[in-house]
């Protein structure tokens, strides 16, 4: 970024914050559009999400480069350094959210011509709505340095995990009932998992906001509501 | 880390390198053991992998804390700063590898009592062998600052992706043939996906080694061999 050579430290920080907000906007739209593409069976919309990912990748590279350059050039002290490290972390999480929305959209394209159990699509949509609210709230918390809101997002992730586990069980049941739906159900399974992982990235961002606001790293284990990896059979919810 | 207040910058770097190597060793063992637990149907071994993850998480927190503290305290210039940023990145990838090996082990426990198609278990084992070799090579490349070896790892990931795609197709076929195997096959599917994602983290580390050795970020898209998200049906390999 040669154009920044003469800028001040505050200008560098402003530039970085602006780009993080831009990344946030792009990743929110990618998540919303990938879900809408699923619900509406809109392959063209899914393709536009796939195409949008390159922009997010480019933004992340710019942010990381400028943040490292700023650290090298300005030699910031504790609080400012924390802000720069946080910028790098948040950009990495947003980039991963974009990757997951892109992968989701590829799967929407793959199953566009197949039967999709509506009950499950609605379940995935509901999960995505929750994750979108989480992403919006954590980006607001980041901009406002609002530790209370960040902790709230961090706590709420277990609802998403629990919903994912119930969708997982239902998908298994559905596949067993009619093997012809296995291909589309498998894609739905990974698609739901992608959205659950986007939820995990919003909790990572919440942890970064907490670190930014307090200087302390959250070290307690987050409450886990996703027990699907322990699920032995769909009829055995206690496992 | 109050005990480091009087240490030199080189001592800080040595300490960080030592801990990265330790994290590398723990994550290699977790990956190897989770796969062995699958092949041997050894739930006790799988439980030991699940238990080992807390150690990796703790190491990552220590590394990140010490790296940030070192940046703040030593105000390093370009090359040293690059090393510290790299340490933070590599630690994050190794921590994620541990999470994935832990999730794999939970799935091994879940399916331990069920029929497991041997051909698929062998396919997963083969994929894990490739990923273990990648992880070993990229950790060596990191220690030796060997850019050529890092680029080699980075290129080789497409073999793992291709193998994952073929396992994915075979698992779908297997589920369609006999719906009673859907639960175990679904876990195998996520398990294979976890190992493929560990492969992605080894390429991330390869990119970091390249950045460390050259100061330049790899910006070209890595060759992608995993086309499973575009797979429409197991009998349609052209899609």
UniProtKB/TrEMBL annotation, chains A, B:
Plays a role in the regulation of phosphate uptake. It is found in: Cytoplasm. It comes from Chelatococcus asaccharovorans. The keyword Secreted does not apply. Belongs to the PhoU family. NCBIfam families: phoU_full. This is Phosphate-specific transport system accessory protein PhoU. Keywords: Cytoplasm, Phosphate transport, Transport. It comes from the Bacteria. Coiled coil: none annotated. One of its GO terms (cellular component) is cytoplasm. It holds the Pfam family PhoU.
């Amino acid at each position: 970024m040669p154009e920044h050579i003469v800028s001040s430290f505050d200008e560098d920080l402003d530039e970085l914050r602006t780009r993080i907000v831009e990344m946030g906007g792009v990743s929110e739209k990618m998540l919303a559009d990938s879900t809408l593409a699923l619900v509406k069976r809109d392959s063209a919309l899914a393709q536009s999400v796939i195409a949008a990912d390159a922009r997010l990748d480019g933004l992340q590279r710019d942010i990381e480069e400028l943040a490292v350059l700023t650290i090298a050039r300005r030699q910031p002290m504790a609080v400012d350094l924390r802000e720069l490290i946080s910028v790098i972390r948040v950009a990495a999480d947003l980039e991963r959210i974009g990757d997951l929305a892109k992968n989701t959209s590829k799967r929407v394209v793959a199953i566009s011509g197949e039967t999709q159990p509506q009950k499950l699509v609605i379940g995935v949509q509901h999960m995505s709505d929750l994750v979108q609210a989480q992403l919006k709230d954590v980006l607001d918390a980041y901009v406002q340095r609002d530790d209370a809101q960040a902790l709230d997002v961090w706590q709420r992730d277990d609802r998403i995990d629990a919903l994912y586990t119930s969708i997982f069980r239902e998908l298994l049941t559905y596949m067993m009932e009619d093997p012809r739906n296995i291909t589309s159900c498998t894609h739905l399974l990974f698609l739901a998992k992608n959205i659950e992982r986007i939820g995990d990235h919003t909790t990572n961002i919440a942890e970064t906001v907490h670190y930014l606001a307090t200087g302390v790293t959250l070290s307690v284990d987050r409450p886990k509501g996703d027990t699907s990896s322990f699920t032995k059979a769909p009829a055995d919810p206690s496992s």
